[in-house]
Automatic annotation (TrEMBL):
Name by which UniProt lists this protein: 2',3'-cyclic-nucleotide 2'-phosphodiesterase / 3'-nucleotidase
Gene Ontology CC terms, in alphabetical order: outer membrane-bounded periplasmic space
NCBIfam families: PRK09420.1
Main location, first listed in the record: other
Cofactor: a divalent metal cation
Ranges where the Calcineurin-like phosphoesterase domain occurs: 42-282
Source organism, top-level taxon: Bacteria
Signal peptide: 1-34
Reaction catalyzed: a ribonucleoside 3'-phosphate + H2O = a ribonucleoside + phosphate; a nucleoside 2',3'-cyclic phosphate + H2O = a nucleoside 3'-phosphate + H(+)
Residue ranges annotated for the 5'-Nucleotidase C-terminal domain, each copy included: 446-575
The keyword Ion transport appears for this protein: no
Family: Belongs to the 5'-nucleotidase family.
MF terms (GO), sorted A to Z: 2',3'-cyclic-nucleotide 2'-phosphodiesterase activity; 3'-nucleotidase activity; metal ion binding; nucleotide binding
Organism: Puniceibacterium sediminis
Length: 659
């Protein structure tokens, strides 16, 4: 097929082709060549669903082909039809992450006996087991337990305990640490045999910081690797033939460290674990993303020689691990394996998206009522904005979508500090852009036109149900907070043209802008911190001309910074926000505060005040990628000199910034 004809492939033709190719999967070598006493077992994984059941973007209020368990379910149905033996597992972060989740949590509620729509959808698909991700704790323990009570499948989690003992095996865990699934498998000769499949689950221990309000005093977290090393031997003693780790933890360093967040590589090294399902990072494994990681083989799809998979996020992929098992006496062992992540959509050469599957009608029907209720919920107007709210230039200039968050946080914390010992301290506000392209693609930006502001727009401005926090910091910590944030940018050589500006390893949600002070960023200087917040250059000085009310900030001066529970609890490792500077923990979410501010004001003016900018570098230019619709607003960015440089192959608009 030529490139030109490929780009014109229709959805109908592609779906037909996909169905035909699915039939060929039945010829998988494990199925074709499994002998007597050998069996092919297929492990299927979803991860980081974040309540994306329907193929619908509630923020944009339109159908999409790139998300939704209803779409992933179609692949699951095909595989079950073609594979004699399969297990379906979920790797966590299913209860929170889009307006349907917020609607259930904040509007409808979850009483004992109620059914959560994502659990209804998962029951409809038919899971064998699942684990708990970090975002399951966002709405509190009662909400979590009431929601998961409706699951028709066991949920396991080994490293969160309601009562800690001398060691992990002495803990009283919030959920069962593991489950043993008694199943039968059919071998190559058509004979059935019993098999015991152990499933154990883990979540990042950082939840104790990220959701301190909900968890402190109620549960304790243990190190993932130490917990696995304690429980897996017991699982083997209980007769498990194979053990699968549901590691809601990313693929990171090979060497274990106490309390590590992304621990899936050392988890795979635990003796007795046969396969690892990973997640949390919203990425895909196997994929070139992890090429070169110690202990990881992206070609074979293994970590420390164990098969592994990470099925993207929001239902974008299904992780698939194929195991060829061989029976020795009464014991099964893994002979060989393959791994893949199967997508629900593809991006074409013309940058359009084509669905590879249609939705499973049973999943759509089971949650149709909650879907309609969510649509009504997000469409309510709460006020008006006199200017557009967009994030197209949020990473390169003071921005209206970040500005309104900061204004609302400052308004709220100013009121909360009245009558406290901190009344009178200057109040600053830290906020970051959540939707700023990157892995989300060229359409992943906030874009609210002037006029009515609905709840869906507020959710678009602030994606996460974080709660407001206030921290007390010094002027020196304010500066280092901003130095940490300025790691977003590459170092730029003076006098050189068209240098890449943004560090692709730096997530936009860690690019905090602090409102209430003025400052400039000197791109000629190296970054003081690496993308994870580790000190790189102690003498680096990117932040210059830092001032409050027109006067230079004194390093010893005290400030209150309004932020969120994630940042204040150490999320992102920002100086002054490591969990020990919190002076106020709000009962309200940042979203609720934004809604309340808009309601009180009636009409808001989100125009950015340009409190930060780049230090001029004559004769120097940098390149910046953003959404194509940024062109509608480029002439309004007064702090930058911009030139349109066309589009990238991925569909982003490219701008040249003359420094």
């Amino acid at each position: 097929m030529s490139a030109s004809s490929s780009s014109k492939l229709t959805r109908r033709a592609l779906l037909a082709g996909t169905a035909a190719s699915s039939a060929l999967i039945a010829l998988h070598p494990y199925s074709a060549f499994a002998a007597t006493g050998q069996a092919h077992l297929r492990l299927l994984e979803t991860t980081d669903l974040h309540v994306h059941v329907h193929p619908y973007d509630y923020y944009a209020d339109k159908p999409v082909d790139t998300v939704g368990l209803a779409r992933t379910a179609a692949i699951i149905n095909d595989i079950r039809a073609e594979a004699t033996n399969s297990l379906l597992l979920d790797n966590g972060d299913f209860l929170q992450g889009n307006p349907m989740g917020d609607y259930i949590a904040y509007e409808r509620g979850m009483k004992a006996g109620d059914m959560h729509p994502v659990i209804t959808a998962m029951n409809t698909v038919g899971y064998d087991a699942g684990t708990i991700g970090n975002h399951e704790f966002n709405y509190g323990l009662d909400f979590l337990m009431n929601s998961t009570a409706g699951a028709d499948f066991p949920i396991v989690l080994a490293n969160i305990a309601t009562k800690s003992g001398a060691g992990p095996r002495d803990d009283t865990t919030l959920f069962k640490p593991y489950v043993i699934l008694d199943r039968t498998v059919t071998d190559g000769a058509g004979n059935t045999h019993p098999i015991k499949v152990g499933v154990i689950g883990f979540t990042p221990p950082q939840v104790m910081n990220w959701d301190r309000k909900n968890l402190e005093g109620n549960v304790q977290a243990r190190d993932i690797v130490a917990t696995g090393e304690a429980w897996v031997p017991e699982m083997k003693e209980a007769g498990c033939d194979i053990i699968i780790a549901l590691s809601h933890s990313g693929i990171g360093a090979a060497q274990p460290t106490e309390g590590m967040e992304n621990a899936s590589v050392p988890v795979a090294a635990i003796d007795g674990i046969d396969a690892v399902m990973t997640g949390h990072s919203h990425l895909v494994f196997p994929s070139p993303t992890y090429d070169g990681y110690a202990g990881v083989d992206v070609t074979k799809g293994t970590i420390h020689g164990k098969p592994a998979a990470m099925g993207g996020f929001w239902g974008s992929h299904l992780g698939v691990i194929d195991l060829l098992l061989e029976r020795e006496g009464n014991v099964w062992r893994v002979v060989s394996s393959t791994s893949e992540a199967r997508p629900i959509s593809q991006r074409n050469e013309d940058r359009s998206i084509t669905a590879l599957v249609e939705s499973d009608p049973a999943v759509i029907a089971a949650t149709a009522k909650e879907h309609e209720e969510t649509l009504a919920y997000v469409r309510r107007a709460v006020g008006k904005t006199s200017a557009p709210l967009h994030s197209y230039f949020a990473l390169v200039a003071d921005d209206p979508s970040v500005q309104i968050v900061s204004i609302a946080q400052t308004w709220y914390i100013t009121e909360m500090m009245q009558g406290t010992e901190y009344e009178g301290l200057p109040i600053l506000s830290a906020a970051a852009p959540f939707k700023a392209g990157g892995r989300g693609g060229a359409e992943y930006y906030t874009d609210v036109p002037a006029g009515d502001v609905a709840i869906k727009n507020v959710a678009d401005l602030y994606l996460y149900p974080n709660t407001v926090r206030a921290v007390k910091v010094t002027g020196a910590e304010v500066k280092d907070w901003l130095e940490r944030s300025a790691g977003m940018f590459n170092q730029v050589a003076a006098g050189k043209a068209d240098q890449p500006l943004l560090n692709p390893d730096f997530p936009s949600y860690n690019f905090d802008v602090i409102d209430g002070v003025t400052y400039q960023i000197d791109l000629s200087q190296p970054s003081k911190f690496d993308p994870k917040g580790v000190l790189l250059n102690s003498e680096a000085q990117r932040i210059v001309s830092l001032a409050h009310n027109g006067a230079p900030v004194d390093p010893g001066q005290e400030f209150i910074i309004a932020t969120n529970n994630y940042r204040a609890g150490g999320g992102g490792s920002f100086p002054g926000a490591l969990g020990d500077t919190v002076v106020f923990e709000a009962p309200d979410t940042n979203r609720d505060v934004i809604v309340r501010y808009i309601v009180e004001q009636g009409t808001i003016n989100p125009s950015a005040d340009a409190n930060w900018s780049f230090v001029p570098m004559p004769g120097t230019s940098v390149m910046f990628e953003t959404g194509p619709k940024a062109r509608d607003y480029a002439d309004k960015v007064s702090s930058l000199t911009l030139e349109d440089a066309g589009d990238t192959a991925e569909g982003f608009a490219q701008f040249r910034i003359l420094l």
